[in-house]
Amino acid sequence: SRARDLLRKHYGLGVGVPQPSGKERDPMDLDSPAFDAKAYYEQLITTASLPTLLKRENELTSEIRQLDGKRQALVYNHHHELIAASDTIAAMKTRAESLDADLDLLRAAFSEISRLGAEV
């Protein structure tokens, strides 16, 4: 949809649905939508040595912490953007409400002008 494409463009995600590449269909690639955790685990546990497994565990733990930090930063940033937008909307509402009295005066003035014009 148009709204989804605009949001994707705003957040730098690209427009439309990207076509999956070979890497994106790889069940052994952790970043692939086709990732198969059970197959990855079986392959890793049967082919890797204990030091390699421990190293991979440390790498994955570090990556998980980094991704969690990025996720928290995104939530924090979006939360503040929502609060700022809410404050802006509240300020606009206050300003619009203060214009009501001025608009009533203007409406009365135009009515008087119309009445005077009709008399002439």
From TrEMBL:
Q: How does it assemble?
A: Component of the Golgi-associated retrograde protein (GARP) complex.
Organism of provenance:
Heliocybe sulcata
Q: What is the lineage of its organism?
A: Eukaryota, Fungi, Dikarya, Basidiomycota, Agaricomycotina
**Keyword Protein transport tagged:** yes
Main location per UniProt?
A: Golgi
Tell where it localizes.
Answer: Golgi apparatus, trans-Golgi network
Q: What does the sequence similarity comment in the record state about its family?
A: Belongs to the VPS51 family.
Which InterPro entries has this protein been placed in? Vps51
* GO cellular component terms, semicolon-separated: cytosol; EARP complex; GARP complex; membrane
Keywords of this protein's UniProt record, alphabetized?
Golgi apparatus, Lipid transport, Protein transport, Transport
Among the GO biological process terms of this entry, one is: protein transport
Q: Which PANTHER family match?
A: VACUOLAR PROTEIN SORTING-ASSOCIATED PROTEIN 51 HOMOLOG
Name of the protein in its database record: Vacuolar protein sorting-associated protein 51 homolog
Q: Highest taxon of the source? A: Eukaryota
According to its UniProt entry, what is the function of this protein? Acts as component of the GARP complex that is involved in retrograde transport from early and late endosomes to the trans-Golgi network (TGN).
